[in-house]
Design brief:
Elements: H1 2-31, E1 34-43, E2 47-54, E3 57-64, E4 73-76, E5 79-87, E6 92-100, E7 103-105, H2 136-141, H3 143-146, E8 150-164, E9 167-173, E10 184-188, E11 197-209, E12 215-227
Parallel strand pairs: 3-6, 10-12
Antiparallel strand pairs: 1-2, 1-4, 2-3, 4-7, 5-6, 8-9, 8-11, 9-10, 11-12
Length: 229
């Protein structure tokens, strides 16, 4: 009789465990708007691109760089869709891709943190300032003075991200710095190439936060370019 009682207790315990796990899975899917299965994984320097399947609908998402396996189940809510997004590293254009704010694996076995801006290293650059313009060091030293004002800065194009939120995002350096700030981010509708030395004219904005880890203490917006000789 005692043996039978033990077997019954074990059966109940196992059943409860399965029910609890099932409830956890159901609860997890309720907490997030999207539940997807990983179909393909592409790694680049700062992100992981995932082709996912959501109830037969396949699409691409970009998440902070991490390890994923085909067949894994992921959950997410917040995202920003980008159309005709070009990955320069892959030389590939995504008709549509979702940059996901936060993603979690099934049953919480590896939550990922929110993405951060890729860090731009300081390069060995020396660019003479344009007449009537300012340097990056001057801009950061007197940022409050330049807020909402149009300025000119000459620098070397270090990085280009095209077609994000309808703009091209440019990083330039001129060899000057202030308190560790040596890189200026610029938005423009013009097309430029890494390695070009250009003069940019645009309005200065301060403390811009676009979400998804992308915030800028200083940003030059709607810039025009002037090629230097």
């Amino acid at each position: 009789m005692k043996s039978l009682l033990i077997v019954l207790l074990l059966f109940v315990a196992i059943g409860c465990g399965k029910n609890e796990q099932s409830e956890q899975t159901t609860q997890k899917s309720k907490e997030f708007a999207h539940t997807v299965k990983v179909e393909d994984v592409i790694q680049v320097s700062s992100y992981t691109y995932l082709n996912v399947d959501e109830n037969g609908n396949k699409y691409w998402i970009a998440v902070p760089k991490a390890e994923f396996d085909k067949g894994e189940i992921l959950y997410f809510d917040n995202y920003m869709e980008m159309k005709n997004f070009k990955s320069s590293e892959l030389d590939k254009i995504f008709d549509s891709i979702y940059f996901v704010d936060y993603v979690e694996k099934q049953l919480g076995t590896g939550a990922l943190t929110r993405p951060q801006k890729p860090k731009i290293d300081k390069l060995d650059v020396k660019v003479e300032p344009v007449p009537g313009g300012i340097t990056i060091a001057e801009l950061y030293s007197r940022a409050d003075e330049f807020k909402n004002k149009t300025v000119r800065i000459r620098g070397k194009v270090i990085k280009v991200n095209s077609g994000i939120m309808g703009k091209n995002w440019i990083h330039i350096q001129d060899g000057t710095s202030k308190d560790g700030n040596y890189d200026l981010t610029i938005t423009t509708n013009e097309n430029v190439n890494p390695g070009e030395v250009l003069t940019f004219e645009g309005k200065i904005a301060l403390n811009k936060d676009f979400g998804y880890g992308y915030s800028y203490k200083v940003l030059m917006e709607e810039a025009r370019t002037y090629k230097t000789l």
